[in-house]
Amino acid sequence: MLTAVAATTLVTGCGSSVGGSAADSTLVSYTGQSGDYQINFNPFSSSTMEGPGTIFEPLFFYNITQDAKPLPLLGTDFAWNADGTQLLVTLRPNVKFSDGTPFTAKDVAFTLDMVAKNKTINTTGYDGKAVATDDTHVKITFSKPAFMQGAQVLGKTFIVPQHLWSKIPDPANDVIAQPVGTGPFVLEEFKPQAFTFKANTGYWGGEPAVKRIRYLALAGNQSGADALKSKQIDWQTGPVPDIKNVAKNYPGYQAITVPMNQMNLTTCSNAALGCTGPQTDPAVRKAIYYAINRTQLNSLAFEDTASDISPGFTLLGRDAKYVSPKLQEKLAPKSPDLTRSAGLLQGAGYAKGPDGLFAKDGKPLELTVQVPSGWTDYITAINTMAQQLLPAGIKLLAQQVSYNEWADARVRGRFQLLIDAMNQGPSADPFYDYNYYFSTETTAKVGESAYPNYSRYSNPEVDAALNAVKGIDSTDAAKRQPYFDVVQTRVEQDMPYIPILTGGTTSEYHSDKFTGWPTKDNLYAFPAVWSRPDQAQIYKTLKPAGQ
């Protein structure tokens, strides 16, 4: 029913994509949203629908798929002092917010100061002090070397207008229904089933050739595949049947797969911060890790588009040189080791009962895994792992919930397990994932908002190593590696996130309708519709076919 409503909205709002109509410049995106949208364009909220990159811009764009120089956006140049305690940024002149107000260095200083004062939106422990020295220059001072804060400050902090946001009492949780930014698009219309952005005619980089972007809410992956088949959407990131033959099965479309997202079972791991359940025991987490048949899982759930993953969570391929030689296992095992799994549980005081399940203190080892309804690949993955873990004496129960319920449970720690993937940081550097997901600074007690260390993981050795890396120039790989070794080996030992596989992120796109999509030979941005601000770079590059 939802799919039909969304499709009707699409047809009446956009028209046909054939014949040179105005609809040729309207791009229809599906981000995987299952269920109605709840309006929120707050770029600092974990439940934002859209806006980072498209409406709210960072200072520079960092390409996370490769080691490349950052692309100037609101900023045109930046430089560190010798010891990494001062960052000078030059801004683009003559930029305006979409309400016509001039953008200046005061907006940058205000935004950074707001982040520093609000722990919930300060995802990397930013502790600088920003000062606008004039309209186009900002000086950011740190109390200690802070090289590794640079990419986050410059590439992932979305600048908001001081004249509006200074009136917002809670920047982490306030719902922004009428967003004002400097980006290439502005909000045109919102409805729960679909919302539309239109090109910003006053954009400093020139009005985009894509005149409208319409975001649909459907019923899940199958609805996305059906909409793709009928040419009702132009870009989605997600699985479709027979994914290796997209061009054949969906005439006019192409697909690209990039291994970027480290899929895992996120555990609420830290009893000291309020987590409850058997998953708070590292032995249980590692027993699950060894009971998974990843070869079978890849085939049944991911059409063999996934690849190996490291238990230290260094992204293989792009960052393979950083994988620690001190890991017990450089790669998660492809085949299950039930003997090792059982040994871990027995060592933790579990015993197998007559029903074949391990139990402790009279309680069978049963765990609930939350997953958004409609995420068919992840649902299949959980069901497959549930079958795989039964011979290991572990029972997994899939709990399908709405995306909004899942996201809220994730950020507040109200779960035992949930299936998720680690998204990459602001630049092509493993430090950021380590700092995001393993740092005490980025987590919180159960019931409070943690972002993005959802597992509530805290280890003083890891914290010390991460703090040390912050003061080392990112080009000095040899000096950084000993600290990376500490992070990876402790994470492997504690396993707050149970590694599944590295997800091959596949996007299907309407190549006959728009040109300029990223390709493997020209990966100018990570081509996932939900990756921000990469999606904005792609929207700005695309042109309707024939232009």
Specify the number of helices.
Answer: 15
**Spatial shape:** globular
Mean pLDDT: 92
The separation of the N and C termini measures 36 Å
CATH class descriptor name of the largest domain = Alpha Beta
At the third CATH level, what is the topology name of the largest domain? Dipeptide-binding Protein, domain 3
Instruction: Count all strands and give the number.
Output: 21
* Structural classification: alpha+beta
- Order of strands side by side in the largest beta sheet? 8-9-10-1-11-19-12-18-16-17
Q: Could you name the ranges where pLDDT drops below 50 across 5 or more consecutive residues?
A: 1-22
Instruction: From the alpha carbons, calculate the radius of gyration and give it in angstroms.
Output: 23 Å
> What percent of the residues sit in helical stretches (DSSP H or I)?
25-40%
Estimate nothing, just give the exact number of structural domains.
3
Largest sheet: 10 strands, mixed
Please identify which CATH superfamily of the largest domain we are dealing with. Answer: Dipeptide-binding Protein, Domain 3
The CATH architecture designation of the largest domain is Roll
Which strand-content bin applies to the residues? 15-25%
What are its keywords?
547 residues; alpha+beta; D-Maltodextrin-Binding Protein, domain 2; Dipeptide-binding Protein, domain 1; Dipeptide-binding Protein, domain 3; 3 domains; ten-stranded mixed beta sheet; four-stranded antiparallel beta sheet; 15 helices; 21 strands; 27% helix; disordered N terminus
